[in-house]
Amino acid sequence: MSTRSSELPRKQPVQLRSKALVGALMGAATRILSKASIDSVTTNEIADLAGVSIGSLYQYFPNKRALVAALIRSRASADIAQLTRFMDLPLEVPLVEAIREGVLALVDRHRKSPHLYRVLLRAVPDLDQHEAVRELARAGRRQFAAFLRSRRHETRTLDPELAALVLGRAVEATLHDVILEEPTLLEDPRLANELTTLCVSYLGCHEPQ
After folding, report:
1. Model pLDDT for residues 142-178, shown as the tens digit of each residue
2. pTM for this one?
3. Residues 1, 4: Cα–Cα separation, whole Å
4. pLDDT top residue among 2 and 178
5. What is the CA radius of gyration of the chain?
6. C-alpha dihedral (122, 128, 131, 137), degrees to nearest 10
7. I need a surface site. Which of 107, 159, 195, 202 has the fewest CB within 10 A?
8. What is the spatial distance between Cα 12 and Cα 87, in angstroms, rounded to a whole number?
9. pLDDT for position 11
10. What 8-state DSSP symbol labels residue 87?
């Protein structure tokens, strides 16, 4: 299902000034939604906090829903970028340690903004953002599959694409459940430890030859 037109930006920023303006709006929405609900927020509040006019906001977003939808996509994209950063570590870093770094970074990212994630996760279906988020997740899995192919000497024999799907969904689902049901677990170091164990055990990691 494609995103409804009411949830699409009016236009994309091109120049540095317009990108800075949209960035300020997204930052303001992030700060407000880190403490409040979508229903309680107005576009005027977001514009005021961003230090721009309401007219400038409407240049890029037709309404609050479109702005929050853009924030969902932006946050999901940043999460994928955070998770895939560990894939750039040199081959001298054992796969077990690389995965541990990736998991720790992702859990820490969610730990810093649990309310924001809870608000955005619940808004995904209402704002028709499921397919957009899933496409970002698929892109991340393709990167992970390529990473696994480059590290196949440190894992059991497996299908990289299937392994990326299974682990990607497992980690994502666990973090989403924690955010929605047990957010205090984000402060518990055992969460990252268990997720690391899940990944390492599934991959059958071993010392490179």
Report:
1. 999 999 999 999 999 999 999 999 999 999 999 999 9
2. 0.87
3. 9
4. 178
5. 19
6. -30
7. 159
8. 30
9. 61
10. G
